[in-house]
Hints:
Blueprint: E1 6-16, E2 21-26, H1 33-36, E3 39-42, E4 45-55, E5 58-63, H2 69-73, E6 79-83, H3 97-100, E7 104-107, E8 112-120, E9 127-132, E10 135-141, E11 147-151, E12 156-159
Parallel strand pairs: 7-12
Antiparallel strand pairs: 1-2, 1-6, 2-5, 3-4, 4-5, 7-8, 8-9, 9-10, 11-12
Amino acid sequence: MDTKEFITIGTIVAPHGVRGDLRIVPQTDFPDRFLTMDACYIDGKEYHIASARFHKQFVLATFKEVPDRNAAELLARKEIKVPREELMPLPEGRYYIFEIEGLRVEDTDGNYLGEVKEVLQPGANDVYVVAKEGVPDVLLPALKNVILSIDLDKQLMIVDPPEWI
Length: 165
């Protein structure tokens, strides 16, 4: 599989205990998936989850291929990925960040404003960083009155930028 087909759903923080358990920070809106999923990928290699449970903000998981703490330590700071086709479906009008990044951005008059370079998550709402060569980046709040439509098939976002931009 091409590495572009894999999406990160968590990051291994550190080993947990002496038996090879791993402490994982979920990076998904669906952390429960760790409790039921069978396989994931770490550095392109398939790993199988033997068990998983929640502990505070972490998922503690045991992998069949990780027999002890020494093996677990080698996986610290690694990303846990799944194939794109195994992502959980999102409700209508919600998108994964990787789907937003790279979209062409136009205003309601069809003027090209740039492409979404990055999605910031400061708290209340996401902020889209729109980049266009030769001009400073534009920060657009992900609000319904600003982001009017997103068409993934056309790779296009239509916006009504606030007057202060």
